[in-house]
Amino acid sequence: MNETIKNQLNHRTIREFKDEILDQSVINNLLDVANMAPTSNGMQFCTIIEVTDQNLKDELAKNGLQEYMARAPHLWIFIVDLFRNYNIAKENGQENDEMLGFDRFIQGMTDCIIAAQNVTIAAESLGLGVNYFGNIHNDTKNVIKLLNLPSLTYPAVGLGFGIPNQEPQIKPRMDITLKAFENSYKVYENYNQTIAEYDKEMTTYYDLRDANRRVDSFSAQIPKKQGTPIANRNKMFETLLNQGFKIDIK
């Protein structure tokens, strides 16, 4: 097993970092890694905002309801960006609404996630810690305002990274046989029975972990996390329309 795979299998979310800024050469390397990530049709629909202003970090953390976001030494927001290409086409008199469609948005979102994961793998290979921030979707309209994003752009995901100041336990994952099938989707007759051992493993994990110990399980988290609305997230579609994306619902 090579070192890259070892690092990936050892992945854990790092929420606390040493108060140290990385050398600019490291940042440049990570930007290059993001830039060379696969991109749909070569259209490069991803832009990165490096957040260095502490006041802005504080506002983003408040928006996302995760105070430790403000303590990330390096915070990048990956942006779906149709604005750049649309304006290139417009300057050449070739713009059209097809360039703003929902499928293009999905391509941009995919570009952003792939680029962010490229950076994650590279950062962890350097011994750095990483934390994904999906909390920017708590109020994307506000994030757009905070980052001064133009039309035809949309925040996809945040990524905080730096030198780890903690070593949390690895969070158990559901057995891969429940998530990887051959040729077609496999439906189980009783899912609670199927994940019973995983539920026990997760209960043990939460009971023994160093921080925020509690009695919990995966099945108990589903209604709490997946079944509970987060304020303003139901406005994401509305925000997309306000940003100028052409969403055809016919």
Automatic annotation (TrEMBL):
The keyword NADP applies. It comes from the Bacteria. Transmembrane segments: none annotated. Residues 11-62, 63-162 form the Nitroreductase domain. Gene3D superfamilies: NADH Oxidase. Keywords: Flavoprotein, FMN, NADP, Oxidoreductase. The keyword Flavoprotein applies. Belongs to the flavin oxidoreductase frp family. This is Nitroreductase family protein. The lineage of its organism: Bacteria, Bacillati, Bacillota, Tissierellia, Tissierellales.
